[in-house]
Amino acid sequence: MRILFITHSFNSLTQRLFCELTEQGHEVSIEFDIADSVTEEAVALFKPDLILAPFLKRAIPEAIWSRHRCLIVHPGIVGDRGPSALDWAIRNGVGEWGVTVLQAEAEMDAGPVWASATFPMRAARKASIYRNEVTEAAVRVVNATVARQNDPNFKPERVPGQAHALMTQTDRRIDWLTESSATVLAKLNAADGFPGVADELFGQPCHLFDAWPEATLKGEPGQLIGRRETAILRATADGAVWIGHVKPAGGIKLPATLACPAAGELPELPLAGWWKSPTATWQDIAYEEAGGVGFLSFEFYNGAMSTAQCQRLTAAFNWATTQPTKVIVLRGGSDFWSNGIHLNTIEAAESPADESLANINAIDDLAEAILRCETQLTVAAVGGNAGAGGCFLARAADFVWARDGVMLNPHYKNMGNLYGSEFWTYLLPPRVGDEGAKAIMRHRLPMTAPEAVKLGFYDACLPGPGFAVDVARRAAELAAAPDIAERLAAKRAKRQADEAAKPLAAYRAEELTEMRRNFYGFDPSYHVARYHFVSRSAHSWTPRHLARHRDLDWKIPA
Ligand code: COA
Description:
Blueprint: E1 2-7, H1 12-23, E2 27-32, H2 36-46, E3 50-53, H3 62-65, E4 70-74, E5 80-81, H4 85-91, E6 96-103, E7 113-120, H5 126-148, E8 162-163, H6 169-172, H7 181-189, E9 197-201, E10 204-214, E11 224-228, E12 231-235, E13 240-248, E14 254-255, H8 256-259, E15 285-290, E16 293-298, H9 307-320, E17 327-332, E18 336-338, H10 343-348, H11 352-371, E19 377-382, E20 385-387, H12 389-395, E21 399-403, E22 407-409, H13 424-442, E23 447-448, H14 449-454, E24 460-462, H15 467-480, H16 484-501, H17 504-520, H18 525-534
Parallel strand pairs: 1-2, 1-3, 3-4, 5-8, 16-17, 17-19, 18-20, 19-21, 20-22, 21-24
Antiparallel strand pairs: 4-6, 6-7, 9-10, 10-13, 11-12, 12-13, 13-14, 15-16, 22-23
Coenzyme A binds next to α10 and β20.
């Protein structure tokens, strides 16, 4: 089938559906929902068999839904209608939620239902539920919907519904003096990553994000108790909650202490070392050991890795190599493994060009530490999505095991034609060949884990359910294998031979020469692209690699 996606953006859910349907042999093209006339033009050009709206913020125009079958992916259970569907589900503490595909009609989300699926709810942020449970359910529901298009016996059913209102900032408001930590966390989770909860810090209006529970520290309700690295701890009626990210009014989302310089006056509440805290608290880098394996998690918000985070993670990794283990597993965070350098902290810097260079050097230092590790085998367990430099950073490990279902975007070009670093020029060609490396770097589209393995870019794709357990078992087997000493010796010999052929420093210098051109050169594309990315600017056109119906040589297949 020819399937046209009309979508607000090419977000991770849309990317996943694009990959799934393309893999099944459907021809998928994408048009961003910019203006009714643009959508009508796309429909006229592509002549789709089906129009699917995986992520829409407004209604499809009647001129389209009245003439073409338009199906909406709604992140709610059957009968749920209206905006803020997930926000209300989290706030109301429902035990089960779901995804429904319904046909577009005049009344929003009220059309006949084509398919639906449910999942148990988890205490987590809205964006995390969306990237995990909602995305998995959406794949099932869209597959069922597409299969039903040619089933003459299937009739979509109308169901009675309950419309809810848009959740406003008044609904989201936190009363730090009277509300418990559980309530505060639920309110912040329901608003993360968008729109956040409107509040005030140090007398300045802002939106709060990235909440973490705190089990032991307490203060006077409402009091700002202290800070740890980039997070701020605030007392609730019965405990305290950490705030990791803040968006000042009119600004961009930033690590809390960067967004609020006055937080520097708060007392520092450090953790001792890298070991995972036994009680709930803010800890972005955490180390655990089991079965001769060290596990290093880095829960960086949105997978973005600032200069300071890269430096701290390098220190943690170097320390982990001194532990009596044979294998180190780099776990990344629960939603993202890594999305490369931190574009928001770069944007906020006095000189974004200097900060870009500092950040890329810091992430390269981390990649180099992983590459030069002689005492352990290293595994990147990519259980969350990865993008740009994050995909190549994972490849610095000896093994990359990815969870089936993660979305990978191993290319830099979408960020203003960045050349990229993280030793990709050293890491990619031996695995995928020179032409394969060029193709990956040119390819601006997302990739699934099975595709990455098929290309030789990653080593294994493990089933989604039980991924963490599977990784731990495989890593423990690796550590206990009788030939572990020989494997480590072979790894050292390979690194020495590679270093003799061409030092890592040479690869790095060449990549950074190109990157300096991106940061300081005549062409401002990277700075422009980064500005629009961090400001979440609305799209004004659909990139040609997505809107295939706009290719000059595109023709409806005979
Ligand atoms: N720096 C800062 N923030 C980043 C980031 C980065 N490198 N990568 C992603 N984010 C943020 C986004 O701004 C967004 O923020 P929000 O919470 O305000 O919505 C959030 O992470 C989720 O990103 P989004 O683009 O909505 O997620 P996605 O899963 O749909 O897309 C990517 C994933 C990787 C394709 C996309 O985020 C991307 O292109 N990131 C930039 C990667 C990059 O160029 N890195 C620099 C070069 S190494």
